[in-house]
Amino acid sequence: MDHHERRRHLLTLIHESGSQSPAALARHFHVSVQTIRADIRALSERGLVLRRQGEVLPFPGRENDDFERRAIINIDGKRRIAALAQELIEDHQVLFLGTGTTVEQVALRLGVHQDLQVITNNLHAAMALCHQSCEVVVCGGRIRRRDKDVIGGDAWRFFQRYRADVGIVSVGGMDDDGRLYDYNDDEVMAREALFAHAARRVLVLDRTKFATRLCCTAGRLDDFDAVITDQALPDQLRSPLAARGVRFLSA
């Protein structure tokens, strides 16, 4: 069992069984306590578990942590990513913005551009854009209260009605081979519709998503025209991207 698989099983065990000690987890997975502590630290940094006084706890009832908590994780890195993404946008363009906290940071920087039309299913991004001069079109449908966005069939039908010059999205995770992941099919469905109707596709991905496999696959890095991160990708990922003409930017 590699560390990706062990961390997936560890996360499932914690959410199903509740609080666990590192020693108990080490015995369960037949590894050292030091190895388990590294796993717990990686999951904690991604906002998936909570460490407290010698135990690790689930965030009750959450498949992913809520937007407000995720928004403060690696905020400086997300802002640097947003600054690079903003440089890829030109005046008078039509933009798609997907869900997530990094995409919200992109929205906050769009005021420097003139005559943009922004189409989004991300209500946090829409609220940020209300203070700027661009035109905003918001997806209607059932709101996911935890994240204040619209996903699934409502978003799929919404994005099918439009065409955009640039689509900017994020994902829940990326493994060491460049495969991308999300938490559920509804998130993937919304992103695929956005993806299909954007002339240029930009992925914004902060380092907390690296080496993270989740339950739903969501394409690969080389599906995009540009990939922007706050930490350089490993050579084994950058070289294939360059060969396929994918632009890589690191903040």
UniProtKB/TrEMBL annotation:
Residues 3-58 form the HTH deoR-type domain. The lineage of its organism: Bacteria, Pseudomonadati, Pseudomonadota, Gammaproteobacteria, Oceanospirillales. This is DeoR/GlpR transcriptional regulator. Gene3D superfamilies: 3.40.50.1360, Winged helix-like DNA-binding domain superfamily/Winged helix DNA-binding domain. Coiled coil: none annotated. PANTHER family: GLYCEROL-3-PHOSPHATE REGULON REPRESSOR (PTHR30363:SF4), HTH-TYPE TRANSCRIPTIONAL REGULATOR SRLR-RELATED (PTHR30363). Pfam families: DeoRC, HTH_DeoR. Keywords: DNA-binding, Repressor, Transcription, Transcription regulation.
